[in-house]
Amino acid sequence: MILIGATLVLVAFFFHLNRGEFIEKQAYFAIAFMALYIVVYLFVPSQLNGTSVRTGQLYEYIPLISLGAILFPHLNSKSPEGITQILGWLGLISVSIILCIFKIFVW
């Protein structure tokens, strides 16, 4: 449930900071992709009912960090904004693929 709350806080903070400004389509796609990820993560049943603390760290924290990198690339001052957004997308898509593989074949 921390995933939903933290995502809502990130999205609300993003729209609060960018009110009245042009928002790239990439941000809307990232928010929609994260919403789809949350639906799959929370509501698609797995074959096994085992849980682990490490599982929560992988499937909750990495997507949140990735969404933050996509929405707030300017916070990483050591890399160009485009690279930060690409790494955010890479993290979000990678964890989504891993989640789907585990939900279908392993769990």
UniProtKB/TrEMBL annotation:
Transmembrane segments annotated in the record for this chain: 29-46, 58-75, 87-106
Keywords: Membrane, Transmembrane, Transmembrane helix
Top-rank taxon: Bacteria
Protein name: Uncharacterized protein
Protein species of origin: Shewanella woodyi (strain ATCC 51908 / MS32)
